[in-house]
# Entry
Amino acid sequence: MTGSSLSAAPRPVEVPARRPSGAAALAVALTLRTDLWAPLVEYRETERWSTLVDPADAAAVLDPALHAELAGAQVWLLSWLPGQGTDLHDHGTSAGAFAVARGTLTERVVAARSREAVRQTTTDLAVGRVRYFGEHHVHQVTNVLTEPAVSVHVYAPALRWMNTYRVEDGALVRTGTQRAGVDW
# Structure
């Protein structure tokens, strides 16, 4: 060899594979298990119906690989008759995901950035769609169609409160706080 030096080829940077969050994985897995949620569902004409899913019942139908995620989460099952929906809200300090198990739900997301008008988007979410959200996610979920809907919601840490909002003069304005065990 001559006096030139050989340098090693640059090593590829290893980037971890992207995968759904634990909450999204739980929501999807539980949505697929109609044997768990279908017998529990109720519909109420006057308001949306919801119930906490017993962690032991959820664990019994989940792949054991998801049990660690379940240990730190809270799972809710909700039903939505046509016209029923939420106020514009966040999830306090909880992040999570929800998946549509039956019907179609419409999600309105409002994103606020300092010194800018809020941005609003609306998306129809049909059966099988999942929506992951962080703790600062502000949205409104409604059943605007003519058939009932069911969704599975997963929160981590457990949902303790939700702040409610309205959009006023292009800004997001907090209107109140709803507390778990008190207001729902």
